[in-house]
């Protein structure tokens, strides 16, 4: 006959409790992951996009666009065609910096503002950006950020800008779901 001391008994009971709580915790974690995945499948871009987007026309000057980015503290500025209002592209902080560096390198700092005033947004904007429809599910859209390294996704419906989604919008969604 095996004699079990009180200390040994407490050890076995505590180990059993730990194993039980680990099992429950792992099951809850699996359920949360499944629910999170299902939530992302159910939601669409329309649910998280910014719909009252500030944009510029392709004929506006670069200086004006730079001031909007600076004043609003944003990094992406959608561009629409002057005549039709159709989505035309995106002016990014990066393209503005590249343009400024090129001007300063070729002509000097003193000419930067004058040259920006004479340069149309359409000359430096990105036109080959990925666009998404408002009814696209968030899982698919999220893959554009991770796989294709997109920094923003203009939401376009019938050639018109309907909104904009950035990686920050996905971070906000994740924080909301984790609360």
TrEMBL record:
<dbReference type="InterPro" id="IPR051257">
    <property type="entry name" value="Diverse_CBS-Domain"/>
</dbReference>
<feature type="domain" description="CBS">
    <location>
        <begin position="49"/>
        <end position="106"/>
    </location>
</feature>
<dbReference type="InterPro" id="IPR046342">
    <property type="entry name" value="CBS_dom_sf"/>
</dbReference>
<dbReference type="Pfam" id="PF00571">
    <property type="entry name" value="CBS"/>
</dbReference>
<dbReference type="InterPro" id="IPR000644">
    <property type="entry name" value="CBS_dom"/>
</dbReference>
<feature type="domain" description="CBS">
    <location>
        <begin position="125"/>
        <end position="179"/>
    </location>
</feature>
<protein>
    <recommendedName>
        <fullName>CBS domain-containing protein</fullName>
    </recommendedName>
</protein>
<keyword id="KW-0129">CBS domain</keyword>
């Amino acid at each position: 006959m095996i004699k079990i001391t009180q200390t040994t008994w407490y050890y076995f009971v505590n180990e059993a409790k730990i194993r039980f709580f680990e099992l429950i915790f792992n099951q809850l974690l699996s359920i949360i992951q499944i629910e999170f995945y299902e939530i992302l499948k159910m939601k669409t871009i329309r649910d998280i996009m910014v719909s009252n987007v500030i944009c510029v026309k392709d004929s506006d000057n670069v200086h004006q666009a730079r001031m909007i980015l600076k004043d609003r503290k944003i990094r992406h500025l959608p561009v629409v065609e002057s005549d039709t209002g159709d989505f035309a592209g995106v002016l990014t902080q990066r393209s503005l910096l590249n343009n400024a560096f090129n001007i300063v390198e070729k002509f000097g700092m003193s000419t930067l503002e004058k040259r920006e005033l004479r340069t149309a947004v359409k000359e430096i904007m990105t036109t080959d950006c990925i666009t998404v429809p408002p009814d696209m599910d968030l899982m698919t859209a999220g893959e554009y950020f991770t796989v294709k390294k997109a920094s923003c996704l203009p939401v376009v419906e019938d050639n018109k800008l309907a909104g904009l989604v950035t990686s920050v919008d996905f971070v906000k969604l994740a924080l909301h779901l984790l609360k």
